TrEMBL record:
Belongs to the universal ribosomal protein uS4 family. SUPFAM superfamilies: Alpha-L RNA-binding motif (SSF55174), Glyceraldehyde-3-phosphate dehydrogenase-like, C-terminal domain (SSF55347), NAD(P)-binding Rossmann-fold domains (SSF51735). This is Saccharopine dehydrogenase [NADP(+), L-glutamate-forming]. Gene3D superfamilies: Dihydrodipicolinate Reductase, domain 2, Domain 3, Saccharopine reductase, NAD(P)-binding Rossmann-like Domain, RNA-binding S4 domain. Keywords: Amino-acid biosynthesis, Lysine biosynthesis, NADP, Oxidoreductase, Ribonucleoprotein, Ribosomal protein, RNA-binding, rRNA-binding. Residues 444-531 form the Small ribosomal subunit protein uS4 N-terminal domain. The keyword NADP applies. Residues 532-596 form the RNA-binding S4 domain. InterPro entries: AASS, NAD(P)-bd_dom_sf, Ribosomal_uS4_CS, Ribosomal_uS4_euk/arc, Ribosomal_uS4_N, S4_RNA-bd, S4_RNA-bd_sf, Sacchrp_dh-like_C. GO terms for cellular component: cytoplasm; small ribosomal subunit. NCBIfam families: PRK04051.1, uS4_arch. It comes from Gomphillus americanus.
Amino acid sequence: MAQKKVLLLGSGLVTRPAVQVMTDAGISVTIASRKLENAQKLAKGFSNVTAISLDVNDSSALDEQVSKHDLVVSLIPYSHHVAVIKSAIKNKKDVVTTSYVSPGIAELDQPAKDAGITVMNEIGLDPGIDHLYAVKTIDEVHREGGKIKSFLSYCGGLPAPEASDNPFGVKFSWSPKGFLMTAKNDAKFYKDGEIQETPGKDVMRNAQEYDIYPAFAFYAFPNRDSSIYKERYNIPEADDIVRGSLRYRGYTQLMRTLVDMGFISQDENPKLKQAIPWNEAVKEIISAKSASEKDLKEKIEELTTIASQTERERVFAGLEWIGIFSNQPITPAGTPIDVLCATLESKMSYGPKERDMVMLQHKFEIEHKDGSHEIRTSTLLDYGDPNGYSSMARLVGIPCGVAVKQVLDGTISGKGILAPMSPEINDPLMKTLKEEHGIQLEEKTIKRCDSEMKLVGEYGLRNKREVWRVSLTLSKIRRAARQLLTLDEKDPRRLFEGNALIRRLVRVGVLDESRMKLDYVLALNLEDFLERRLQTQVHKLGLAKSIHHARVLIKQRHIRVGKQIVNVPSFIVRLDSQKHIDFALTSPFGGGRPGRTKRKKTKASEKKDEDGGDEDEE
């Protein structure tokens, strides 16, 4: 068989691992870059690789090169993919990209089918490897007659912990602009069976702590439109569907402040084209009274919401680290985000011996056909090699290279616009990635009943239904908070209903007074509510020997709250009532008339004493 020839467009970081996979398979690769020296640098060290200069905006030059090859790999910015695919359709050549299928690409499905070509997309890390294992689990559950009730997927490309030595907890090997722009992306996802939409300016505000491994302090937030995966993954039964990003603690608070300050804006400002001092630039962007640090900080606190003194200190320390209160000159760039990027790029690049890290996790809540539930996770934790490929480059480039091989050898044979959304495409990809490259997700099953039964035992509940009732209450409260967060901060409804909800939660002790914000309402969990049950409080106050004994005391009317006897263990105790929990005045434990058994024993004891006394007298 004649040697296959591939035209690879691009010379970025992920390109080299893809080239290595292809050349190891005996494929001839032509690397095309606008700058010839970039392509030559990338080709160095490989045999059977040619470097050329090519401007993809030159359609005739692009057509000429596409026509000479069997397949085109497009690793250039996604905005060029449509032009590349059109050229491939014209020349009847296959295509592989690591990018999402955009509306423009989707429109080329029928023309690609008519040309008889395969256009394989979304085969990197995210998207790519994430799809492989999402579809795998979903297909397994459906084949067994089960349902996916919840699907959460979060991914983060981060520095390894020892290299996360700046306030953002991120570093770059490329321009940070695209990375920072994610902070303004609107989010759309399913929660409790309903579509939720969060404006870009509020996405960071709604970031949640997210546990994967105890050693990592992650925050997670939804990214772009996750709602489409109800159809793409064929999970119409799912109540929750969220795909999002992971960051280290501290990032979301700092980015939220920069968003509120207007630093992610791409609006041109003539003054930012000059090398003015940082504090003057900030004054211009946020419209502060002066460029003094005091006035800048006062204005920043007007523009953003800082939840606590600790968070305030962390945020301002981060801003000082950037240098925005200093007299140092900015790098003239014209827009707030470009000025910020110029500084961050110099401050947040990887050092020679530093490594990156990728964390990816899917979490599925599964309902089996017998009605039982479980939680299943698929997790990938991968570190880069300081002397080799970064984790991100490896996990994007290798799947791309494997897909190229499988398109060329006919393993992936479908025509038109494809993505890894079916076992037919995915299974061979997963097999090769695992067996030849050691890339796989660790899959674990966590029985949901175990976690629920733990709560049943810990809080002395009668059965799991009591857990479910609390879960339903919590779900309704979170839904109300999310709906209010979509409104403007000064919207009368948000102010009135939000304050009422927060006051109610503070009153019952579920929400701490230092966390009186809707953001913190979303972070409430089942334990917060179970702690406020009368049964729990009776045990904690020492009125009962155990949590189960507390339930018995309450049911037998031995406990009062204030003057009222309460015989409902699930009664929620308000903060102002907590100190009034005691034994009922009618209870023998509280000095009342002894119970029947005790009276009987006392009477028998008294009679025995009397009989003993008579004998002594004789």
